[in-house]
């Protein structure tokens, strides 16, 4: 009896396969200048009956492109750790992307060779709420992009970062794999990560500590291989290993922080 119970879900999976030939359609609402993450879950594409778990051995890969084009729109990237893992579409839409974009996703079952299609209708609009003029980008060396895209690690990063800002809400603006900025793929034997850039924005000003770590003095120390001027407790450690030599701040106003004002080449307007 126990055996029957064990095998039934597997059988259902084999029969269901990636059966749906009609493309499913989902509407999503990315916001201009805010990070957008859409998870391509195996569940969604397997069209399993309810309460049937995805067998751990299922291999699925995805291909996504803008309708009528071979590639994704420039702002949107695709990543997947392995065919066992979910895929992610992520990025930060620019003002030119406002409006409708239709993304076609094809899932390939690597075991059964079945394919399933899904259409994602992206209605890209402007965010509501206050402007976020204070923006900072961090290089997190301990993680790959896929590891910070799910909502739990992302909000964990934001709440840990809260200690380095004047109180106020922080929002995720952009996530970029260090590989997309010229980083190198680490050798697997090194057990190291590719690294990920995380851009955060707030309506509240930076803490003095954050201004100091991004100051020309701090960058000069880094350039000489010395530790940066981190005057506060690293609230992100040990979970997130931030490279404090690679913090970039941007804000819309002329800098009035005197010696803490970044050198002009570090100043980037949002
Ligand atoms: C997000 O990051 C990517 C990669 O660094 C960059 O090309 C893009 O302009 C950024 N988008 C926004 C809205 O900042
Ligand atoms: C990926 C990386 O390490 N980027 C930069 C981090 O900051 C140092 C010092 O400013 C630069 O030398 C790196 O290129």
TrEMBL record:
Coiled coil: none annotated. GO terms for molecular function: calcium ion binding. SUPFAM superfamilies: Cadherin-like (SSF49313). InterPro entries: Cadg (IPR006644), Cadherin-like_sf (IPR015919), Sarcoglycan_alpha/epsilon (IPR008908), Sarcoglycan_C (IPR048347), Sarcoglycan_N (IPR048346). It is found in: Cell membrane, Sarcolemma; Cytoplasm, Cytoskeleton. Belongs to the sarcoglycan alpha/epsilon family. This is Sarcoglycan alpha. It comes from Homo sapiens (Human). The gene is SGCA.
